[in-house]
Structures are given as structure tokens and as C-alpha cells.
Amino acid sequence: MLDTKKDFPLLKRKISGKDLVYLDSAATSQKPVQVIEAVKEYYENRNANVARSVHKLGEEATEAYENARKAVAKLINANSEKEIIFVRNATEAINLVAYSYFLPIAPSGGKIISTVMEHHSNIVPWQFINSHGMELEFLGIKKDFTLDTENLGRILSPETKLVTVTHASNVLGTVNDPKEISGMAHDNGSLVMLDAAQSVPHMQVDVQDTGCDFMAFSGHKMLGPTGTGILYAKEEHLESMEPFMYGGDMIKEVSLEGTTFNGIPWKFEAGTPNIAGAVGLHAAIDYLEKIGLEKIRRHEAELTEHALDEFSRLGGVEIYGPKNADKRGCVISFNVKGVHPHDVASLLDREGVAIRSGHACAQPLMKRLGVGAVARASGYLYNGKSDFDALVEGLKKVKRVFGV
Amino acid sequence: MLDMYAEEILERYKDPVNKGSIKNTAAEAHETNPLCGDSLDIYLKIEGGKISGAKFNGFGCAISQAAADILLDTVKGKNVKDVKMLSKGSFLSALGVSLSPARLKCALLSWHALMMALERAG
Ligand SMILES: Cc1ncc(COP(=O)(O)O)c(C=O)c1O
Fold first, then answer.
1. CATH number, domain A5-25+292-402, options 3.90.1150.10, 3.30.460.10, 3.90.550.60, 3.20.20.70
2. Which of A267, B17, B52, B84 lies 20 to 30 Å (CA to CA) from residue A118?
3. What are the residue numbers of the active site of A?
4. What is the interface pTM, i.e. ipTM, of the complex?
5. How far is residue A292's CA from residue A285's CA, in Å, rounded to a whole number?
6. Model pTM?
7. Which of A15, A120, A336, A340 to mutate: most B Cβ within 10 Å?
């Protein structure tokens, strides 16, 4: 098991007089001192605007920003750093694809396939495209909480322009097989978008291997600063896409009569970007790579197995997700029978245990599961088995308070 | 101030006295809290300008359900006009439970539904 808690200053906090047990990393991760220091160092020594100034600081800031882009490209094995667009979060990355690729072609029809397992951020932008003329259809899930990929073959049609799927579910923990999905979609002549917000932070993701055309993820869920998100897209698509926003930095030449746009990736990054955020994200990637994503994945699988074991021993807890730790991430959604998830989370908070409760930005999935809301505990590299033990102890208390 | 999980609150949650529905109501309203997936229906019977019956139905956390139960206790038999004047603040202080900002919405779900029902009753 990994032992990295010491690197995370916030995890030393006390909540309600108890040691904080942070089990909400699926919402956002905590940051190691290496990331916090990198951002501080940047502001103290190198802060300037990028790609504008010839002075030394401007040069250093530009270099720092572009180095972060290279680090992202290497992390996911993109062909070139030109394929990496910095945005604010995964949601913006998905919107960029919706606006720049699909909105212009939407009036001529076609179909987009998403799934019921998606975060709202991979549903709502497509409903927007749907309102401009493209059809939208959703792939279901099976009893074992995995995607109904058999049915994908049936609903793919010559009309299908895009299949957009989460790599790892932020509710069920299910890890989908992007290779299988890309294979089927590409055979059909459809593009593939992967929502990798819950996978890139937790496992090695190689865009060549997954075969996706577009991939969105969030820097803040992978130890990086908030306000950092990434869109990966194949160069050929970026070249053909319309800009997303218009203004400074995304241009090559402007006259009052018209403008020629900058090349990729800058064509998609209008205005001053989140430079310090990119620097922090770079430090986060260095940190993750130093430990090794394979090791992180194994660590989390052990945590998941332990947690699922303890939950089943506890009894009276319903779990929504695959039972096999190899096939899922360390995101465990559950309900304590007879207790609303908000009450579960509020009582756990008194024990210093932080979990998510609610619909987890996946209302269609809640409906499919037949629940109004869930409690969700999610672990990361800095969690240990003792954190899940604290959760289980807290749940025993919840059951005592409610007499269930 | 009562603790959110005080015995009184939990009792109300487990054994609400005003849970149910009323047929041919004078007014009813449905309110949801999208953040937690809670939903609540309120049914009112109004006679001679007075609330002669009040019931709620729905599901939600302990505080949303207990608050609904307590709220309906306090409005039964009262003049519609007076109940319409019941502010959020005075309802919360009558409830007397200490609530974090995130849980205020839960406690106020029934108040919103009640006000909407009264609005509809005219
Ligand atoms: C699967 C999934 N997709 C997308 C998002 C959206 O991420 P962000 O809020 O950073 O845009 C999240 C996280 O909230 C997520 O879990």
C-alpha cells in the first residue's frame, strides 16, 4: 500500500475535533505540498503573461505553460502537444467539442449516442446539440451496473456521428472498456468522445490505446489546482474545428476587416489562460508519475476490495456498482436502508468523515437505479484502509442513531 | 437549540403524525430539492378561511420530513391570512434546530411547499 498522506497538508486538519477522513476525491482531490509549492514558486519568481511579451519573465511564463502542455501530452501518450487544449474543467472540454465540432453540423442532422451512466456534463451539452437538430440516444446499463455494450451494436447507425461515454463512472465506479466502444464506433464511421474525469487521475490512460477522438478530464481531480481542465483531440479534428471563443491569443492577425486564427492548440485558448494552474498541474503530473499510475490503480483496488468487504459485513447497506474490484474504481455509492444519504453524510461529518451525498450530478442514473439520491465515498492514493474503517465505524453510529 | 438528530426530530421522522394525503383538497403543492432528490407534497383543507386539515407526503432526510410534520402541526386551525405571514425566519426559530447552511434548504422545503399551496388557494 502507498503511504502518501504526509504530502497533503490539508489532510492534517481536524473536523469536529476529529482527524479528517477525506473520502470525496471524486468531487475534487486534495493537493500535495509539491503542487502548492509549485504554484507559489511560479507567482513568486516567474509570473507574467504568456505568448505576448519579449521580456525574460514573459519567456519563462510561456515556457512553464507550454511545458505543462507537454507533460499532459506525455501522460496520456498524445501524438503531439498540439492535441492538448487547456480549459477550466472537464465540463468546458466537453462543451468545446459540442460547440466547435457539433454545433456547426447539427442542423444537417445525424445522431449522438451517450449513456445513462453519464455525469450531467456529458448529457446536457448534447441536449443542447440535440436542440439544434441532431438526434440524441442513450445507451443503458445492465443488472451488474456495467454498460450495455451489446445494445450499442444495435443502436449504432450510419447516422451516428458521435458516441460519447464515461471511462469511469463517478457514481457506480464502473470502468468501461473504451477500446471495445471505439472499435465498434469507428467500424461504424462514428467518432468517440471519452469522459475521462474519473479515470486519468487513477489509472494509466493511453489515448492511442483507447482509440478515442476526443477526451475530457479535470486537473483538479488529479491533484492539480482548481480551474484546470484538459481537452485532448486528434489533430485532424482540431484543424477542422471552429474556434470556441474569440479574442486575444487565439488569433494570428487581426484587422478591422477580418481575422486569421492562430494555429492549434492556441486557436482554442482565447484570452490569458490559467498559467499558474497549468504550472500546478504539471507538478501534479510529475507527482503522479513518480509514484506510478499502475501503483495508484493497485492501491485503490486494494482499498476498494477492503471497503466492499467491510460494507458487506456491516449489513443493511445497499451498494450501487460492480462487486469486482478489478472492474471498478474506488468510487462507492451506497444507501443505508431507512436513512436518507444526507443524514448519513451529516452524521459522518460529525466524525470527521467527508463523503458526498445527493444525486452526484447524475440524475438520469439515479432514476435508472430507482433512488432519489445516494451516499458516495471515493478514495485516492492518499487514503488508507483505516479511512474506510473510520467510515464503517461512522456508519455503525448512523445505524444506531436511526435504530436501523 | 436542538441538535439536528435530537430524539424529537428522529421521532417525527420515524412516526410523523401529519403524513398522508387529503382527497379533494383546497390546495396542494409539490416542492423538490434538486440537490438531494427530496420531494414533498402538501395538502390543505380550508374551511371558513382557516386551515382545517393539513397533510404531507414525500421522501427526504430526517430534517426535511420532521420539519414538515412540525410545520403542519403549527398551522392547523390557524387563519390562512396569518399563516401566509409566517416568515422563513420565524418558522426556523420555532423549529429550534441548529442547522448548517447546507441543511437549511432541507428544513425549508415544507415551508416553500406550504406557501405555494396557500398561494394557489387564493
Ligand atoms: C465523470 C465526470 N465527468 C465530468 C465531471 C465534471 O468535471 P468538472 O466539474 O471538473 O467539469 C465529473 C466531476 O464532477 C465527473 O465525475
1. 3.90.1150.10
2. A267
3. 361
4. 0.87
5. 10
6. 0.94
7. A340
